[in-house]
Specification:
Number of helices: 0
Radius of gyration: 13 Å
Strand order of the largest sheet: 1-2-3-10-5-8
Low-confidence stretches: 1-8
CATH topology: Jelly Rolls
CATH class: Mainly Beta
Helix content: under 10%
Mean pLDDT: 91
Shape: globular
Oligomer: single chain
Order of helices and strands: EEEEEEEEEE
Number of domains: 1
Number of strands: 10
CATH superfamily: Jelly Rolls
């Protein structure tokens, strides 16, 4: 079952070192997000998905790069499944329907490219 619960942790402090794996923590039956940067040109957000959690199919007006750095995920783009694990990335094209489902708990860095 996909939960709509989402929790934002505090913002990352500029010019301070941090570990991406520690930037967000897993929570049971939840999706946790933490914004790293938000500019007119795009956003950078780190997410932690509990096993079985996901985002239903939707579109976005901008390309988005997904970098998986822990766990495994299934990402559908325009009806085609893509299976990603630690160290793999994919670009979700603008205006193409996509959905995300955590096959195992997983963490990803999402870079939204607005320009």
């Amino acid at each position: 079952m996909t939960s709509k619960k989402e929790h934002n942790e505090s913002a990352i402090i500029k010019a301070a070192k941090f570990n991406l794996l520690d930037a967000v923590s897993y929570q049971d039956n939840a999706i946790v997000s933490r914004e790293i940067a938000n500019k007119n040109s795009g956003t950078v957000t780190v997410f932690a998905f509990a096993k079985g959690q996901g985002l239903s199919e939707h579109t976005a007006p901008f390309d988005a790069l997904v970098y998986v750095f822990d766990g495994e995920v299934e990402i559908h783009i325009a009806g085609k499944p893509h299976f990603l694990k630690d160290g793999e990335m994919i670009i979700m094209p603008a205006n193409k329907p996509h959905a995300v489902k955590a096959l195992e708990k997983f963490k990803m860095l999402l870079i939204m490219l607005r320009s």
